[in-house]
Structure formats: structure tokens, C-alpha cells
Amino acid sequence: MRARRGPRPLAIRIFAAAFLAAALLRLLRGLDDLALAQATYAALAPWLPWSRDAAIVALSAEFTIALIPLAWITLFAARFARWLVLCMGAVRLVMFDGTALAGTVLVVTAMASLLTPAAARWFAGQPEEEPPEDGPAIFE
């Protein structure tokens, strides 16, 4: 994979900002209420002993895992990462949590920005806009 050169379209910048904000919000929310995070993880995986330290490690791992497709999309324009984010965002919408409304709105914003024509051009490898060519300069 080679890094994509040039400026990112507005849709990709909106995606990056919204997706990063949603992941950071989830991390900070979990760290703010570690007892709730610990109980949530214990409900999801009751066979593991969930201490406060384990909950912090799991929250940090989730944040790091969220950064991976963010980097793939913004740096490499990886098409598979686009669909991965869209599918995982759809799963998050199905498991809607009313207490995490701000995070859900950010995820929806990030998903919607990946479906714009500018994002489609970004993933297709086409430049956003071609500057008009003046032609070669002629000096006499």
C-alpha cells in the first residue's frame, strides 16, 4: 500500500474528524465511569475476570482498533476499510444506545461522509478537482 498524495477531500476530512471524535468520546466516557465499563465488559464476556485495569486495557484497545481503519482511509484510501467502517457502523446503529447519542450522531456523520461523491472519487483514485492548465510559459 502506498500513501495517497495530495489534499484530502472535505468528505474524507469530515469522516476523519467525526470518526476520531466518536472513538475518543467512547474512550473518555469509559474512563470516566470505569465501573460501568467494567460491568459492560463483564456482561459481554462473563468468563473473563474484569478488573478496573482490564477495563482500561480493553477501552484503550478499542480506541487503537478504531484508529486502524481511520488511517487506512485517510492515508491510503483503502476501499475495504470504507466498507469495514460502514458495516461496523451499521452494527453500532443496530445496537443503538440512547445514552451514547453524541457518539451515534458522530458515527452516522462519518458513515454518511463516506458515501458522498467526493469520497467515491477519493477511493477511485481520481483527483478532487483539476486546476485549470495555463499551458507552458513562453518568454520572448
Estimate the strand proportion.
Answer: under 5%
Q: Which blocks of ≥5 consecutive residues have pLDDT under 50?
A: none
Sheet with most strands:
none
Kindly name the structural category: mainly alpha
**C-alpha end-to-end distance:** 46 Å
Mean pLDDT reading = 87
Cα Rg: 20 Å
Order of helices and strands: HHHHHH
Tally of helical runs = 6
Helix share of residues? 55-70%
How many strand elements? 0
* Overall geometry: elongated
Please describe what this structure looks like.
By secondary structure, the chain is mainly α. Helices cover 69% and strands 0% of the residues. It contains six helices and no strands. It is elongated, with a radius of gyration of 20 Å.
Give the arrangement of secondary structure elements.
Blueprint: H1 10-32, H2 34-44, H3 52-76, H4 79-94, H5 101-114, H6 117-124
Question: How would you describe this structure in keywords?
Answer:
mainly alpha; 140 residues; 6 helices
Short account of what is shown:
The protein has 6 helices and no strands. With about 140 residues, the chain is mostly helical. The model has no long low-confidence stretch (mean pLDDT about 85).
